[in-house]
């Protein structure tokens, strides 16, 4: 069981990189069979023999998984939604569907760097989400302002509207809305949003005018 756990464990390891194994005239990536060594060098020959013995059935399983991943990933290319994916997910979809991303494979440090938080926050994809979030927040507070003004003009005598509102209450709400609208319209608001998820621009899902 210990040897098998070394083959299936996804935990980080400090040993040598697993070797690709020849299978039916092709090669199966070594990482698909797990760790190459184990905690002690003396166990490596035994584990290596086990890897070789299991490579045929393991290859069949890996082939099925890879083909399923490829088929699913291709759907994102067919409908264009791959363009809306965040950079690290977009890279994974390319690898699942085509085997590489901009010439980089799964072991490439350039691809792994995409998964760092600092890298993602600086991407055009993320910056656009912040701008869209600001646009929608600004539109929201404008709607609030318009609704309050419509209520003020149409209500006449506030005491007769049955809501228990005084003129001062309405004025306070309008002042709040003006302050919030000014805040979300400021360029500094983008700094406040940094670190949040922003807003989805809905690329490829619906026309922009439908969102306004």
Descriptive overview:
This protein has 212 residues and is mainly α. The chain has 3 domains: 73 residues, no CATH class; 43 residues, no CATH class; 89 residues, no CATH class. Strands 1-2 form a two-stranded antiparallel sheet. A hairpin with a 2-residue loop joins strand 1 and strand 2.
Which regions have little confidence, pLDDT < 50, spanning 5+ residues?
1-14, 36-40, 206-212
The value of Rg in angstroms is 28 Å
Q: What strand order characterises the main sheet?
A: 1-2
Oligomeric category: single chain
Distance between the termini: 60 Å
Sheet/helix structural class? mainly alpha
Bulk shape: elongated
Helix content: 55-70%
In total, the number of strands is 2
Largest beta-sheet characterization: 2 strands, antiparallel
Count of discrete domains: 3
SSE sequence, one letter per element: HEEHHHHHHH
Would you tell me the overall average pLDDT? 77
The proportion of residues in beta strands is under 5%
Q: Please give the count of helices.
A: 8
